[in-house]
Amino acid sequence: MDEPKGTVLFTTIGRPYYGFDVFSLDLTSHCEPRLSDGLSINFDAQFASVSASDEDDDEPEAIVFVSERTGCPRVYLTWSGSSQPQPLLSAPGSLFHDRPVLRNGWLYFISAHEEPDKPFAGWSALYLPDLEGREIARLTPYGSVDYSPAVSRSGKFTVVASYGSRPWGGEFHALNTDIVVVVAESGCWLIWSGDSIVYFHRKADDGWWSIFRVKFEFPSDTDVSRLPLSLTWVTPLGIHCFTPAAMPRSNKIAIATRRRGKSYRHIEIFNAASESFVPITKPINSNFHHYSPFVSPGSRYIGYHRFRGESTGGDSWVPNLEPVMLNGSFPSLSPDGQFIAFNHDLVSTASAGVKIIRSDGSRRWTLIKDRIAFYNSWSPTEKNVIYTSIGLIFGSPKTTVQIARIKFDLSSPDGDITCDVKVLTREDTGNNAFPSCSPDGKWLVFRSGRTGHKNLYIVDAVNGEFDSGIRQLTDGPWIDTMPSWSPNGNLIAFFLNWHNPHFLTPHNVTAFSIYLIRPDGSGLRRVHLAGLEGSPEVDRERINHVCFSKDGEWLLFSANLGGMTIDGGAGVYVATLDGSKLKRLMCNGFENGLPAWHPLDDVGPSDPRSRISHGWDEDKLRGQFEEPLRISCDI
């Protein structure tokens, strides 16, 4: 029980929709070649300076960028005309890399591989390996959290957006960071212009994201913590301006803008002297988002990343655990591991319902159509039986949501599905959701709002509450939800927002913790995770979707314990039933959740069940999405 083993399915918010690649635009010819290779998701690039002589070369010979092709963000270098990007030295065991800068043979990047000494503290720090493979040096002081590094043109100075040593305060849209070495407040996405000016963006007092400029000098006898500053608000009101990139030897900067009433983010050149804009990407690709511009040394080329088309999957990044990727939510594997049930859309009825896919991605079926469904649980004893919730997710206790039992037959040679849907809860009982079937297949535990509060109930898995009645498992004016039955049937794990140690009063409706209870209602206890028991921060836990490992020794869940990595407020964790051996399994710049264990132990990278293909029309990427927090913050 020293380490969990197996395969984990999970949902990452927004990740399947992007399909980003890095492009550059020649401002003289308006040609837009793709610089990355179309594999996975590629973003946050910079023109690379491998040697000092490259600083004056305006040809975009090489870029350094971040790619998720190995399952999590890592740093790559690619040369003009190359079909195979070169992986650069990364931090061993890191789940996250960001904002690489390759300057004069030195690679600066953000990594999240060193665990902080307290919960709710970020993992992000600035590191500096050289390309000869020497030891990676940490530039961020231990106990501090840094983002968004920028290196001056000469390579003498580096600045970061620093969260310092304070614990994460829960911000998502705008982190309250400081700029170090330059002392200013709440700055993000830093970029140098020469060795004396730094541009950055932050949300201004009027609510608009704007570009600011700080000018300073570094006298040899001056304490850099007390440098005199000259802070200038650069961009005008009424336009969201993000991610500046300085154009050398000029008053111009390339920025991403989001104009009032417009749907897409575009790259523009802003002339600070004349306060005028020149559109760059809108005339070429008007209906795509464009992000994170970067500029060649001579300002002839503007680079950025944008949607390119369909995306492919990735490989393993956690020892002994393998990811599988599909476009949907609430994945649930059949007991034999051959099928995955999931919900493709939780909002629109056009592509809603319950879908089943073969674990090798070769075929897919839709069980129910034109009805929104969420959270699926297979019967462990009956073949081709799934339980689901039908109705709107995140409704009030009185919103009508029903528990349904779906029995189906996939054997028809013509592809038609015979499907029998049986509702197990009464229509007048409000919000019934998140079913989990007992190991013997006889009972369902689920959450219901029938009393005006969302508590747990147990009902017959075949007849529902109509013939056999229903039994209330928990009772109180709080929220109990997302229950999961242990493999031996002795425990039910769930999470609730009642954190008073004496269970007398409700507290903090936005924070949830793991609880265990026996099916007869006895033995209720909170799982205190390692490092949090007795801590004043314990009630800031926001944990959801708890489930058991196959052997019943581990709990798998998503949580906010790792603070912020860009805006990935939730990562996937495991811990033993007593809360010890807490381990973060995965994180990225988005948000991971809804994890599920694969029922088989032997699924690995070479197993076809660990790959999902995207051959269906509704899975094709079209670049149409609402900007998520990760790319709205642009830290």
Automatic annotation (TrEMBL):
Cited InterPro entries: 6-blade_b-propeller_TolB-like, WD40
A Pfam family reported for this protein in Swiss-Prot or TrEMBL: PD40
This protein's name: Uncharacterized protein
Organism: Eucalyptus globulus (Tasmanian blue gum)
Lineage: Eukaryota, Viridiplantae, Streptophyta, Embryophyta, Tracheophyta
